[in-house]
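Fig. S4 source data, part A: sequence.
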Amino acid sequence: MATVTAPVTDALLPVYKRAPMELVRGQGVILFDADGKEYVDFTSGIAVNALGYGDEGLRRAIERAADGLIHVSNLFRTAPGEALAERLVELSFADRVFFCNSGAEANEGAFKFVRRWARSIGGPARNEIVALRGSFHGRLFASLAATDRPGYRAPFRPLAGGIAIAERHLDELAALLNPESVAALILEPIQGEGGVRVLDTDFVQALRRMTKERGIALIFDEIQCGLGRTGTLFAHEQFGVRPDVMTLAKPLAGGLPMGAVLMTEEIASAVQPGDHGTTFGGGPLVAAVALYVLGRLADPALLSHVTTEGRWLGEVLQALKTRNPKIRAARGMGMMWGIDVSDPAADVVARARSSGLLLVTAGEHTLRLLPPLIITREELARGLELMEAALG
């Protein structure tokens, strides 16, 4: 029996321009609305639903976790959070992990941790955070100050101080990264909302050398590009560097709210009890689910699939660009691609949605493709056909 679409409510604060349909269920990479219409999902809930919809193992993990404790706060030990932290340490450069509830919270926590560390070795003058042009790190006050979106920033000034945005240029960064005043540089290896811009490998490696030589912490924000989306578990593996701090969120707990800050022992050793906290972060239910999801995302077979199909996707997008004058550029890696188009991106998204394809923008003239990592080549091809039709 068909479900009737619920009436639009005025009870929700209107900070989102939501699409008109009501989504009610999903299977694989297909979502269904209340009227039974199906959509190929190239958004993954903004890079969250890496395993798509209806994953049986995820459902069982949630059921098992719900049979145990759901919450006790971080005043007490529980096994799932500790096991998840240990597994993240095993899989990464990190020695310590802090759990929270979102990507913005993870970046806010990372800023506090690196400032605490920098102060411990250089005094209170070492407090500045430097971000890059085109960055997006969140919408809380410190993370918003590190986000290069004037429209997001302007209504909420004054923002948190001691945070600067620099051009993606080595000479400017060399002048700005003063070891007497700068605590950390933060960057996204692939800038998501900034247009899906893959930073140049030589540039990233030069920044790693510069920050290491000057004793400045390097933070990688992998909230959107990490956890398998590029074809390696962590995006920085593609660049041959290791950060001092990394922030994760989005797909970590399979759609349940979770963020994480991973850091070296050097950074962690400066943090003292009471310096930071979270009521819900790393709770037993969400951590148990995340442990399952992490196992799936770290599976070499899945990562190989993302690499292979992502390479094919890139080749098809370049061919599309050649034959379709409405596509100006295509760039990305794995299952994260940006497509610059001549039409307003929001108009293309609306036309695609009407045809049964869900897309998201990354700027006024950029489409962002973030399909579930499990997507097949046939499903990618179907979505690309719908996208090209929406371009006209």
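Fig. S4 source data, part B ends here. DSSP finds 13 helices and 17 strands in the chain.
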